Amino acid sequence: MNKVVANADEAIQDIRDGAVVMLGGFGLCGIPENCIAALVRKGIKELTCISNNAGVDDFGLGLLLKTRQIRKMMSSYVGENAEFERQLLAGELEVDLIPQGTLATRIQMAGMGIPAFFTPAGYGTEVAVGKETREFNGKHYLMEMALHADFSIVKAWKGDTMGNLVFRKTTRNFSTSMAKAGNITIAEVEELVQPGELDPDHIHVPGIYVHRIFAGAGYEKRIERRTIQM
């Protein structure tokens, strides 16, 4: 199976209006910059985007929000995006805010084939509305469903032509689980190598989960907030 495609535009060519798309990264770290730009160019509408955050106004998923291509966001942390706030308050954007640990676990469970799990996070809050609750050993829990996507899009440091992926540091966070939770997984990598060039002990996502891979280019790798010590 040839998984290598030429570029981001070819990789996302069959994503249609209304698709559910997971996008890896943490803040602006490790986001699939090339594929996000390709989605903007293609003009796909009514997307449901699952991501830890919503980027900033002029970068990351903020670009798709600016062009009104996102119908619904399923996220944990969204505090850096003024356009997100404006659309939410204006009723233009459907939002499902999910506790960060719950979001990560829902994605992980999808990749493991586990349909649901119980967590104490959110019990007694608006997060619990409409959800089944159970008591275990005197403590209350919510039942949360696994979270699947039509497409998962991740960005890795290195990958080989068979789809094996290696991430660097914080960039692996949500991406390693998301790569296993989509019907189709697309990976853009900084460096694309031949099979056998990656140390098997360093592979974070086996190629069996990846359907398309390409070497990205022109990464900005913007820093969301730069903090220095005087």
UniProtKB/TrEMBL annotation:
Keyword presence, Transferase: yes
InterPro entries registered for this protein in UniProt: 3-oxoacid_CoA-transf_A (IPR012792), CoA_trans_fam_I (IPR004165), CoA_transf_BS (IPR004163), NagB/RpiA_transferase-like (IPR037171)
Domain of life according to the entry: Bacteria
Record key words, sorted: Transferase
4Fe-4S found in the keyword field: no
Gene Ontology MF term list: CoA-transferase activity
Pfam families, alphabetized: CoA_trans
Classification via NCBIfam families: pcaI_scoA_fam (TIGR02429)
Family that this chain belongs to: Belongs to the 3-oxoacid CoA-transferase subunit A family.
Protein's UniProt name: 3-oxoacid CoA-transferase subunit A
Organism: Chitinophaga eiseniae
